[in-house]
Design goal:
Layout: H1 2-25, E1 28-39, E2 52-55, E3 60-65, E4 70-75, E5 81-86, E6 99-101, E7 107-112, E8 117-122, E9 133-138, E10 145-146, E11 155-158, E12 161-165, E13 167-168, H2 178-182, E14 184-189, E15 195-201, H3 204-208, E16 220-221, E17 228-233, E18 238-243, E19 253-255, E20 288-289, E21 293-294, E22 298-304, E23 315-316, E24 318-322, E25 327-331, E26 335-336, H4 337-340, E27 342-347, E28 350-354, E29 365-373
Parallel strand pairs: 1-25
Antiparallel strand pairs: 1-29, 2-3, 3-4, 4-5, 6-7, 7-8, 8-9, 10-13, 11-12, 12-14, 14-15, 16-17, 17-18, 18-19, 20-22, 21-22, 22-24, 23-26, 24-25, 27-28, 28-29
Length: about 375
């Protein structure tokens, strides 16, 4: 009889372990519910195709457009433009915003990957009280290093240093030697643009592979929080944290769950992607995430998924990690990216998206949405 009881206990312990593992690998399923839309009312320039968007604070959103060569600050209560900086309109400064650092608002830092310059503006000023352009810094990267003009994952200012994603200029982005030659992914620079040091190696899988990858965004990151940077290479199926004060400090690792929609694996190619202008680009592309957004209780990521290589647009969905309760959740459906828009951040439990349509039109919108658990 005791043998039967012991066997029953062992089976129950095993079953509980299986259930816990299943819960860890199976995220909670959510609905993304659109609450309302707010029309954007810009008064300068013509905003099209936002390339990045950020919640500056509880009432303001910053929007960047590489295509429109400008940045806009929008009031989330009225939709009205609070400020804007347009290329060639501020003291003759020309720029295409690759990525913008907003955390010292109204002082902002606009990085232009083409010119390797960081432009500093005070957007609280008007032309009546002085030009908004304060300074321009030319970066001096190490030999054989350049910066991406688009899809840059890392640019921020912390403790009087700038941090940027590095790329090798010895080969093209499509080369199978690109990751090996880039060596260290992140470079730090002083306020005059002088390179200080580089750090963060690519994962071994990228360094050792001999095949090719469609060029794109292979890494995503957050703004640092308490001197800690959050970085993910999705194909590793984990999120890592890095201490900017002690780069030798052991990283915290958070495992991704199995996803209903996101494919973590890299679709390797046998041949290099044709760089010729106008050449068809039907090769499979890796799924990737936008910026890692830190909420009050964890991380939120927006995915970019190509259902078919020849499809024009991306599908997107939301994944969320609760840092306090240590569980993942994701939306049960994907959405057309051009319809739902670009995730800019979260305030309380409300997500803010800015319309990302490639069509030039007068009506553009900010959308508010919430995530709600799907009933079993």
């Amino acid at each position: 009889m005791k043998i039967v009881q012991y066997a029953f206990i062992i089976i129950m312990i095993w079953a509980c372990g299986e259930k816990a593992e299943l819960q860890l690998n199976s995220p909670q399923i959510l609905d993304l519910v659109i609450l309302d839309s707010l029309e954007i009312k810009e008064s300068n320039g013509f905003l099209t195709r936002p390339s990045n968007a950020t919640l500056i604070n509880d009432t303001l959103m910053g929007i960047e457009s590489f295509n429109s060569q400008g940045i806009w600050v929008i009031d989330l209560r009225s939709g009205k433009e609070v400020a804007s900086v347009l290329s060639d309109k501020e003291n003759g400064i020309n720029f295409r915003p690759t990525k913008t650092e907003w955390r010292e608002y109204p002082i902002i830092y606009v990085f232009d990957g083409f010119t390797k310059k960081i432009h500093q503006f005070d957007v609280s000023k008007t032309k009546g009280s002085g030009y908004r352009h304060i300074n321009s810094i030319t970066l001096n990267p190490p030999e054989n290093i350049r910066f991406k003009p688009l899809m840059l994952a890392i640019f921020f200012k912390e403790n009087n240093r700038f941090y940027l994603e590095h790329s090798t200029n010895e080969v093209s982005f499509t080369s199978n030697q690109y990751y090996k030659l880039t060596k260290d992914l992140i470079g730090s620079y002083d306020l005059e643009g002088k390179h200080i040091k580089s750090f963060l190696k690519f994962p071994d899988e990228l360094l050792e592979q001999q095949k090719f990858i469609y060029p794109g965004k292979i890494v995503s990151s957050s703004y640092p929080f308490q001197d800690t940077l959050t970085v993910t290479f999705p194909f590793t199926k984990e999120i890592n944290t890095i201490s900017l004060n002690d780069l030798t400090k052991a990283n915290q690792k958070i495992k991704f769950p199995e996803s209903l929609h996101f494919n973590y694996d890299i679709p390797y190619l046998e041949k290099e992607v044709d760089n010729t202008v106008g050449a068809p680009k039907n090769e499979p592309k890796p799924d990737y995430f936008g910026d890692v957004i830190q909420g009050q209780d964890g991380y939120i990521l927006q995915s970019f998924i190509k259902k078919e290589p020849e499809s024009i647009g991306y599908q997107t969905h939301i994944m969320k990690y609760n840092r306090l309760k240590k569980y993942w959740s994701e939306t049960k459906n994907t959405f057309d990216f051009l319809s739902i828009g670009l995730l800019s951040g979260i305030k309380n439990d409300t997500l803010y998206f800015v319309e990302a349509s490639m069509v030039n039109k007068d009506q553009k919108y900010i959308k508010r949405a919430v995530l709600r658990a799907v009933d079993d």
